[in-house]
């Protein structure tokens, strides 16, 4: 048995577990998707894998589903943080969506010297990560952190976590990921539209856990660079193998 509609819920999932729906979820399932009692939905909550569930009660303002069987175990992504300097709204949304699809475990907007935005809507970005996970068949939802200053993040950097520093100054160079340090936690860093300052570049390159890489012979926009970097990392060290 399989269900086409996937829904993220903040509720425990398990054999026979009933799951109450919020007003928005009920509207989506019964109003938009036209499901009724007996209809099937795939549920996940980021912890218990994916569960096939059946509609038990369907109302305008609410409803209840009941878990039938587990349809997928929980699949955790590799321990990869994705750090990026937020840019314009639509492109930042795109970056969060793609990072969730590409299997980042944690998405961290960081304020760099040339980052324009001082604020992000963390709740909206988190909702994008949830939607992307619903869409791509994932069972784990990456956390989107609030905006933090890059220098603060570096000050409290966890021991052992490697950093793939995508530096536009390396455009056209042959610096790529070596493909070692496979058992370590990692992070990717992409700069904002304005790129990195010389001071940031020097500091980042000097970090003992930093691996400076080039993303090829052309300067990519930050949103393109995000997808390219995640592809490169997943291919060399992640779960594409
Ligand atoms: N305004 C800058 C470019 C910034 S591109 C300039 O003209 O130099 C935005 C981010 O994408 C960069 O900070 C970097 O992290 C990444 N990026 C884009 N192209 C890249 C490349 N060829 N190699 C490495 N990183 C790249």
UniProtKB/TrEMBL annotation:
The entry's keywords: Cytoplasm, Methyltransferase, rRNA processing, S-adenosyl-L-methionine, Transferase
Primary localization: cytoplasm
MF terms (GO), sorted A to Z: rRNA (uridine-N3-)-methyltransferase activity
Coiled coil region boundaries: none
Keyword Transcription regulation among record annotations: no
Localization per record: Cytoplasm
Catalytic activity annotation: uridine(1498) in 16S rRNA + S-adenosyl-L-methionine = N(3)-methyluridine(1498) in 16S rRNA + S-adenosyl-L-homocysteine + H(+)
GO BP: any one term: rRNA base methylation
Domain Ribosomal RNA small subunit methyltransferase E PUA-like span(s) in chain numbering: 21-61
Any GO CC annotation of this UniProt entry: cytoplasm
Domain (Ribosomal RNA small subunit methyltransferase E methyltransferase) ranges: 77-234
Assigned protein family: Belongs to the RNA methyltransferase RsmE family.
Function: Specifically methylates the N3 position of the uracil ring of uridine 1498 (m3U1498) in 16S rRNA. Acts on the fully assembled 30S ribosomal subunit.
Stored PANTHER family: 16S RRNA (URACIL(1498)-N(3))-METHYLTRANSFERASE, RIBOSOMAL RNA SMALL SUBUNIT METHYLTRANSFERASE E
Protein name listed in UniProt: Ribosomal RNA small subunit methyltransferase E
Organism this protein belongs to: Ruegeria atlantica
